Amino acid sequence: MSFDALLWLSFGGPEGPADVRPFLENVTRGRGVPPERLDEVEQHYQHFGGVSPINRLNREAIAAVEAELATQGVKLPVYFGNRNWHPMAEETVGTMLADGVHRALVFPTSAYGGYSACRQYDEDIERARAAAGPNAPELVKLRHFFDHPLFVESFADATRQTLATLPQGARLVFTAHSVPVSADKAAGPPAEGGGRYSKQVGEASRLVAAAAGVAEYDVVWQSRSGPPQIPWLDPDIVDHIEALHADGVTAVAVCPIGFVSDHLEVIWDLDNEAAEKADELGVAFARVSTPNSDPRFAQLVVELIREHTEGLEPRRLSPDFPAAGCTVNGAPCAPLCCEPAKRPAR
Ligand SMILES: CC1=C(CCC(=O)O)c2cc3nc(cc4[nH]c(cc5[nH]c(cc1n2)c(C)c5CCC(=O)O)c(CCC(=O)O)c4C)C(CCC(=O)O)=C3C
Ligand SMILES: [Fe+2]
Q1: Does the structure show a pLDDT above 90 at 260?
Q2: Is the peptide bond before 87 cis (omega within 30 degrees of 0)?
Q3: How much is the pLDDT for 1?
Q4: DSSP letter assigned to residue 313
Q5: Which residue, 147, 168, 274, is CA-closest to 211?
Q6: All domains in the chain, ordered by first residue
Q7: ipTM greater than 0.90
Q8: Helix (H, G, I), strand (E, B), or coil: what is residue 271?
Q9: Where are the alpha helices (DSSP H) in 222-283?
Q10: Of 3, 65, 165, 179, whose Cβ has the fewest other Cβ atoms within 10 Å?
């Protein structure tokens, strides 16, 4: 099938102090996140001058993908749009329409299924197309890539490098963004029994640990928000470091398997909060870098594109593991797949 563009679809982040509050309001609109949590998270952003690295990292990754497309002789202009901050997906899809784009592939910057990691990007696609009107380009989203060999090898090499900086016997701990337990239960089509997000995170961790030659590891969660009475996936990375310390562990390598770039949730929640806890306990700490700046990440994106443009055989390390994510115009992967949780009224 023929496509005339790629839309790089990401989360978005503030690019100056005045952007922070409106950005956070976009992220949490109608989601019942307590104002105290927002004030706290605002401080994390202001600590870095109100600038999240995420937009810069996306622009760098896009430049690498453009270069890789040129190297492989694939002609496809790349556009950049976000869910929560400028350039917003609505603005970008408007530009694509004005440029005469009819059909585009969409690369979402998340490797996983689940509401926040997959279905919400479909909602972004729907919203952006609705804003563009009846002639909006057709938008075909690329699939989950948690078990793609290029994703796994990139994290595995980075993990090996990080472990080499730590004393022998360091514990390897994978982390991904926590979500409400109810959201994880609703992840995947109902017949699958839920948990598609946490299961894929667990499988990616298993693959990376195996490729890095590590037999024992843990999978934990980070960056929890929402009111405390609502259960989220746990344990939290900071609590887990305490538990490991109590068990006599003296060194920890943290691999942010749930993310593709060193954005704010990584540089604050891990490099700051988790590292501080480890330091306080006298536990050696090192964080594995994410794939964003690895040349294999650009190769991965181009390979996912060529699955569509040239019918390239999808490469998966766990082909029997449930995965999806390839949607047309933001329609769900399957009926009731990753249904949005019931949200408190605004
Ligand atoms: C699964 C998942 C991913 C991974 C998939 C993916 O990468 O898409 C992810 C990524 C990210 N999350 C990010 C930032 C934030 N997430 C928040 C809040 C929330 N995240 C959730 C889930 C996820 N989030 C959920 C269930 C909430 C509660 C509110 C709601 O139900 O939606 C809040 C609100 C304040 C707070 O409470 O923390 C912020 C600021 C940034 C940008 C960092 C930067 O600026 O550099 C990125 C990449
Ligand atoms: Fe988040």
Answers
A1: yes
A2: yes
A3: 67
A4: P
A5: 147
A6: 5-145+293-309 (3.40.50.1400), 149-291 (3.40.50.1400)
A7: yes
A8: helix
A9: 237-246, 264-267, 275-281
A10: 165
Residue 290 tokens read as: 């994410």
Measured from the alpha carbon of residue 22, the closest ligand is 1
Peptide bond into 322 cis (omega under 30): no
| Residue 144 to residue 161: CA distance in whole angstroms | 26
Backbone angles phi, psi at 252, to 5 degrees: -135, 130
Tell which phi-psi region holds residue 64, choosing left (phi > 0), alpha (psi between -120 and 50) or beta.
alpha
The ligand with the least distance to the CA atom of 41 is: 1
Place of tokens 């040239």: 310
What CA–CA distance (Å, rounded) separates 27 from 23? 6
d(CA 221, CA 243): 14
Ligand 2 center–CA 227 separation, angstroms: 15
Q: Report CA(312)–ligand 1 centroid distance (Å).
A: 32
Give the number of the ligand closest to the Cα of residue 268: 1
Question: To which residue do tokens 């104002």 refer?
Answer: 35
**SS3 call for 338:** coil
Q: Which amino acid makes up residue 296? A: R
Q: What is the pLDDT of residue 228?
A: 84
Task: Summarize pLDDT for 120-168 with one digit per residue, the tens.
Answer: 999 999 999 999 999 999 999 999 999 999 999 999 999 999 999 999 9
Query: What one-letter code names the amino acid at 275?
Result: A
Confidence of residue 341 (pLDDT cuts 50, 70, 90): confident
Ligand 1 — pocket residues by CB below 6 A? 11, 13, 24, 27-28, 31, 33, 37, 41, 52, 54, 109-110, 116-117, 177, 179, 223, 225-226, 258-259, 263-265
For residues 276 and 286, is the Cβ–Cβ distance under 8 A?
Answer: no
Neighbours of 287 (CB within 10 A): 20
What's residue 111's pLDDT? 98
Q: What is the DSSP letter of 81?
A: E
pLDDT at 81: 98
By the 10 Å C-beta count (0-12 exposed, 13-18 middle, 19+ buried), 210 is classed as middle
115 is in an annotated binding site: no
CA separation for the pair 291, 61 (Å, rounded): 10
Least Cα distance to 144 among 306, 314, 335 occurs for: 314
